[in-house]
Give the backbone structure.
Amino acid sequence: MAGLRGQIIRAGLEGLYFSGAHLLARPLLGGVGAILMLHHVRPPRLDSFQPNRLLEVTPAFLEDVIRYLRRARVDLVSLDEVHERMTSGDFRRRFACFTFDDGYRDNLDYAYPILRKHGVPFAIYVPTSFPDQIGDLWWLTLEAVIARQGRVGLVIDGKDTHFLCTSPEEKHAVFAHLYWWLRGLDDEAEMRRLIRDLARRYGVDADAFCKELCMTWSELAEIAADPLATIGGHTVDHIMLKKASEEVARNEMQLGAAVIEAALGKRPRHFAYPVGDATSAGPRDFRIAAELGFKTAVTTRPGILFRAHRDHLTALPRISLNGEYQRLRYLKALLSGAPTTLWNGLRRLDVA
């Protein structure tokens, strides 16, 4: 199903691009700018089973995107500049801002040299348990369990359930099924407990992923010292805020900012909601971010920035640089605003 969905999206983007419809849509739907979302930047892997591949792009693609935007005369700006332009109404030139979620070490090894080479401002949103090396990258734990097993069993809705996962196709299907079932649980702590239990039973070290993949505070400090860099808040434990009580959500956002200030000497003024879709962050969380003084806060809801977003600066959409769609023509179609406006039911703003 996930493969079919990707094919449909890819076909839609191809159709928009090769028909020229994206050029016709851009004056009407292209907005004033875009915030680009990335996670990993690293060389491609050859594994046939990579269900989290959408979270990574290659260094070459990142550099191609920068060069394209510069040729297109799009201003590449910081989050502070995004805020300034949105609040002042200075929309004479279109702009784009590069943002990276979670603080992975490959951002330092592969993305940062490219950004520095081209003088591109960027932001990294950090959940503080990750540089503390105790974060729970549960989506990678689930991937590792399925990757290493030919059969996986767990209790679902009170019933013992087993899944065959011997081929890459079966593994992708099992991952999608379990991922979305787990995401659908109301209690995130229970979701994480179930995944930890899977890891123990199938011999996966769930703690190793954070230590291997995430930057330490000293590595983050190296990046933070560069004027091109902005370090943003991303909670403490990367929880889906909408599933938490207001007290817990506020504490996660506030404490995460305080820890970053203590570690790096500067309080973050920008924030990203973990996971960030409509099931993970909503109006209550947008309000809390504003009350805590964040100048901007970004979701993962797909969209271009429009003038009207000046009234919703803690509910900003982003355009994902998705590892499954590493073609400049897809980016050109997305930046026209047509795909995301259609995705959002012809609404320019998705802030409810």
The chain has a mean pLDDT of 96. The radius of gyration is 20 Å.
